[in-house]
Please model this.
Amino acid sequence: MMKLLDVLARHADPLPLKQLAQETGLHPSTAHRILGAMTHTGFVERTDAGAYRLGIRLLELGSLVKSRLSLRETAMAAMLRLHATTDESVNLGIRDGDEIVYVERTSSGRSSVRVVHIVGARAPLHTTATGKLFLAEDGGDRVRDYARRTGLPRSTPASITTLPALEKELERVRRHGVAFDMEEVESGVRCIAAGIRDHTGTLVAGLSLSAPAERFDADRATLVRDTADEISHALGYSPR
Model:
């Protein structure tokens, strides 16, 4: 598949099956089978003349990768300023299905308490402050679907595990514009998160501040929200 994509990328015009097979070293029947699967998924398009070219799906994926890279680059300066102000860990998380994935982080060395929000780490939406932002955006039906689909598994004794409790929590998130994780992912660690929106107003990420429970200050919610708003503005978001 990668050989076929590489050959198609080298040519501006659509290529016939015979040429693709020659340049990739694949048997024509093998190339035809792979191209059929790639056409079905949108990675390759087949013209009326029977030639092949790169498909729109690659453009969609490329745009997604570009937006995520742009998000990290845009957010980092503001994240570092928030870290310098608070001397606590600052995390950037995005949604991937039913989980939050942390794609960037500034780390505080002040405490021996381990914060699990390392780059690449994943956690369920309902246990994380950033995940609650996305669930609050989903609305009632999709939240109920999420609860049925996942079963709301417990990570710590403080985790929300029932739909009524989750719905009540999400209503608070909508009302205040920030979300909290009160030792729901890891005992001894608390978190505040606020949403980051792109130029279309779509929620694309959450900015969160994590701290050991004994040092946690809920009054920093305004600071977290202001920082998230700063990043949103840099991404082109203009609230009505």
Remarks:
- The longest strand covers residues 203-212.
- DSSP finds eight helices and eight strands in the chain.
